[in-house]
Amino acid sequence: MPGRTRPIEKCRITCMTPADIAFAVSLTDREGWGFFGSDFETRLRLYPSGSFVARHGRESVGMISSVTYGTYAYLGNLIVREGHRGHGIGAELMLHAVNYLLGKGVTTIELDGVWGAVTMYRKLGFRDKHLSLRFSRPADKRAVEPMNSAIPATPIIALDRKLVGVARQRLLRAALTDRRNSLVVQGSPVSAYALIRERAGGFSMVAPIIAPSWRQVPPLVDSVIKHYGDRPLWVGVPEPNYRMSQFLLSCGFVSREPSLRMYYGTRLNYEKHVYGIFGPAIG
Ligand SMILES: CC(C)(COP(=O)(O)OP(=O)(O)OC[C@H]1O[C@@H](n2cnc3c(N)ncnc32)[C@H](O)[C@@H]1OP(=O)(O)O)[C@@H](O)C(=O)NCCC(=O)NCCS
């Protein structure tokens, strides 16, 4: 990158603590990523040593977070404060987090890379997997019908584990029991689900969307739009599930700039039943 200079002073990287949450939210707010302080509280409760802050002296200048689902881990929220970028801090945070995860016995690490950062991830050993497509839909003015989404978390967690094969029950339980979030399901007993997660900034992520076959997905998405389309909606779709992209475009979603799903270590192919990702920072 022309004109880049290396750091004059190496930054110190420490574990994120509750005292860093306001700083973390200030960074995600600037990027428009829609995080609440409670997202970081949950993260620190479930993974107390998996998030890191870079500091120059007493000043916090960057962060990264990780979640682990057994031997699979996911990196997200890599942000360096404007004015401190281009001095190696982002790469330093990445190295620190990757080494932390490898030290825990993790064999696969994934992330969704924005295009500006893909070169850095490749240099650090990450490989391209597939596009991670993004879709958004403006708020629909039509009245929506209220919906009773009181379904116990346990069958959803069991379904998710069966169809995705990744042990993400801790974070999923936290999301399913968050009163801000809502659930839309298909079948009885439940065979497909979409979680609607309210985000800061007035939009909702429909994330994840999990179904055993394509057949169940259109009615699930129709139901989400009918009941929750009064807010702007956001969906992240793994590129291989191309039918989902076509369908979203047919129901008023527009395509946004995609990210690149990348992996380090062993490649896992668990996307077959994933029609909506859990989130750009959690997999
Ligand atoms: C992406 C980000 C974290 C990089 O942090 P940084 O401290 O500026 O990155 P570094 O200085 O450590 O750069 C490391 C390498 O990444 C590459 N790189 C980083 N940012 C880049 C950019 N915007 N364009 C091109 N290359 C870039 C460079 O090749 C550099 O390699 P070099 O050391 O050989 O020059 C920072 O730009 C940022 O916070 N962006 C906004 C949030 C974001 O998009 N996060 C990534 C989400 S996936």
UniProtKB/TrEMBL annotation:
Residues 11-148 form the N-acetyltransferase domain. InterPro entries: Acyl/Acetyltrans_Enzymes, Acyl_CoA_acyltransferase, GNAT_dom, YitH/HolE_GNAT. PANTHER family: BLL4206 PROTEIN (PTHR47237:SF2), SLL0310 PROTEIN (PTHR47237). It comes from candidate division GN15 bacterium. This is N-acetyltransferase domain-containing protein. One of its GO terms (molecular function) is acyltransferase activity, transferring groups other than amino-acyl groups. It comes from the Bacteria.
